[in-house]
Amino acid sequence: MITVDITCDLMDEDETGYVWTFLHEARDPGLIEPGAIVVAGDEDAPAVAEVIDIVEKPAGRIVHLRVLPGVIEDYVALITRAANSAS
Question: How far apart are CA 48 and CA 58, in angstroms?
Fold first, then answer.
Protein backbone atom coordinates (compact mmCIF):
# COMPACT_ATOMS: atom_id res chain seq x y z
CA MET A 1 0.00 0.00 0.00
CA ILE A 2 1.27 3.43 -0.96
CA THR A 3 0.90 6.40 1.37
CA VAL A 4 -0.19 9.52 -0.49
CA ASP A 5 1.29 12.83 0.66
CA ILE A 6 -1.46 14.96 -0.86
CA THR A 7 -4.82 13.81 -2.15
CA CYS A 8 -5.97 15.14 -5.51
CA ASP A 9 -7.66 14.27 -8.78
CA LEU A 10 -4.73 13.82 -11.16
CA MET A 11 -6.90 14.93 -14.08
CA ASP A 12 -8.02 18.19 -12.44
CA GLU A 13 -5.96 20.97 -14.05
CA ASP A 14 -6.72 24.65 -13.75
CA GLU A 15 -5.85 27.60 -16.01
CA THR A 16 -2.15 27.19 -15.10
CA GLY A 17 -2.05 23.77 -16.78
CA TYR A 18 -1.06 22.15 -13.49
CA VAL A 19 -3.00 19.73 -11.33
CA TRP A 20 -4.39 21.55 -8.31
CA THR A 21 -5.67 20.65 -4.87
CA PHE A 22 -6.13 22.33 -1.51
CA LEU A 23 -3.24 22.32 0.97
CA HIS A 24 -5.57 20.95 3.65
CA GLU A 25 -5.73 17.72 1.58
CA ALA A 26 -2.10 17.00 2.58
CA ARG A 27 -1.35 14.27 5.09
CA ASP A 28 1.40 16.51 6.50
CA PRO A 29 1.19 20.09 5.16
CA GLY A 30 4.79 20.66 6.29
CA LEU A 31 5.98 18.37 3.47
CA ILE A 32 4.26 20.47 0.84
CA GLU A 33 6.52 23.28 -0.33
CA PRO A 34 7.63 24.49 -3.77
CA GLY A 35 10.22 22.14 -5.25
CA ALA A 36 9.27 19.17 -3.07
CA ILE A 37 8.73 15.79 -4.72
CA VAL A 38 5.62 14.13 -3.30
CA VAL A 39 3.21 11.26 -3.87
CA ALA A 40 -0.07 12.74 -5.10
CA GLY A 41 -3.43 11.37 -6.16
CA ASP A 42 -5.08 8.63 -4.13
CA GLU A 43 -4.40 5.04 -3.08
CA ASP A 44 -5.94 3.71 -6.31
CA ALA A 45 -4.01 6.06 -8.61
CA PRO A 46 -0.86 7.46 -6.98
CA ALA A 47 1.73 9.44 -8.93
CA VAL A 48 5.00 11.20 -8.26
CA ALA A 49 4.65 14.97 -8.54
CA GLU A 50 6.62 18.15 -8.01
CA VAL A 51 5.07 20.93 -5.94
CA ILE A 52 5.15 24.01 -8.18
CA ASP A 53 3.66 26.60 -5.87
CA ILE A 54 1.13 27.33 -3.16
CA VAL A 55 -1.31 30.14 -3.91
CA GLU A 56 -3.59 31.94 -1.47
CA LYS A 57 -7.17 32.03 -2.79
CA PRO A 58 -10.46 33.06 -1.12
CA ALA A 59 -11.43 29.36 -0.86
CA GLY A 60 -8.11 28.39 0.78
CA ARG A 61 -4.49 27.63 -0.08
CA ILE A 62 -4.18 25.98 -3.50
CA VAL A 63 -1.25 23.67 -4.32
CA HIS A 64 -0.18 23.31 -7.95
CA LEU A 65 1.48 20.02 -8.87
CA ARG A 66 3.41 18.89 -11.95
CA VAL A 67 2.83 15.17 -12.35
CA LEU A 68 6.11 13.49 -13.31
CA PRO A 69 6.18 10.91 -16.12
CA GLY A 70 6.02 7.17 -15.52
CA VAL A 71 4.40 5.03 -12.90
CA ILE A 72 5.25 5.15 -9.22
CA GLU A 73 6.89 1.70 -9.37
CA ASP A 74 9.56 3.15 -11.70
CA TYR A 75 10.55 5.62 -9.00
CA VAL A 76 10.63 2.90 -6.35
CA ALA A 77 13.05 0.92 -8.54
CA LEU A 78 15.22 4.03 -9.00
CA ILE A 79 15.40 4.70 -5.27
CA THR A 80 16.15 1.05 -4.53
CA ARG A 81 19.03 1.06 -7.06
CA ALA A 82 20.40 4.31 -5.65
CA ALA A 83 20.19 3.07 -2.05
CA ASN A 84 21.89 -0.23 -2.93
CA SER A 85 24.73 1.47 -4.80
CA ALA A 86 25.33 3.84 -1.87
CA SER A 87 25.78 0.94 0.56
Answer: 28
Quick one: how far is CA 45 from the chain centroid? 12
Would you say 27 and 35 are in contact if contact means Cβ atoms under 8 Å apart? no
Q: Which residue, among 5, 27, 25, 13, has the nearest Cα to 72 in the 3D structure?
A: 5
Q: What is the pLDDT of residues 50-84, one digit of tens each?
A: 999 999 999 999 999 999 998 888 888 888 888 88
Whole-prediction pTM:
0.88
**Pairing verdict, β 6-7 and 19-22:** unpaired
Secondary structure of 17-78 in HEC code, one letter for each residue: CCEEEEHHHECCHHHCCCCCEEEEEECCEEEEEEEEEEEEECCEEEEEEEECCCCHHHHHHH
